[in-house]
Amino acid sequence: MNLSDPAFQLELAANVAVAGSILLAGRNNVHTWWLGIVGCALFAIVFERSHLYADMALQFFFIAVSVLGWWQWLRGDHGAPLPITALRPSAWGWLLPLAVAATFGYGWMLTRLTNAYAPYVDSAVLVLSMIAQVLMMRRKLESWWVWLLVNSIAVPLYYSRGLHLTSILYVGFWINALVALRHWRRLMRTQAPAQAVDAAA
After folding, report:
1. Beta partners for 140?
2. pLDDT at 201
3. DSSP run (H or E) holding 69
4. CA angle 174, 180, 183 (to 5 degrees)
5. DSSP structure class, residue 87
6. Has this prediction a pTM greater than 0.85?
7. 196 pLDDT exceeds 90?
């Protein structure tokens, strides 16, 4: 970790921006989205230089979804912010097979077409992150369970590629996801009485 190294400076800036975004997401703060866009743009460059092409592609997905998520959090429920809700259990019946198929399919493509590092593991981070991000955009409580899994995979992947600062940050993300899960669960419980009153009015 050399502060005079431009590559490390780029990685540091990306980590700071994304860390701020994740912390704001855990606090249910709408400013998570624009800060995340900045961090993802920087990480796209970091991952491209590390031959983690699935993670690089993931950053462009994050940028696009962040724009939509920003709008949905502000105006996504007929002009009111979206409430936090739970995912229907039946949704896992198609989400899990989709995640497995997409991971192996994208990993196979990277193996055939690129010099990607750990293509299947990298693809798992890509696919699971996409699922987690969409669930978070819809304010689904289970998004944080998926983020816990993503971070558990990402930490050893990034460390093995020499992105030590990023791997340390993802340990922090793992802890933040656990804290955010508890916070969102409390928020969801406090929403329920207010929603019942609104329905009765």
Report:
1. 85
2. 41
3. helix 53-75
4. 155
5. P
6. no
7. no
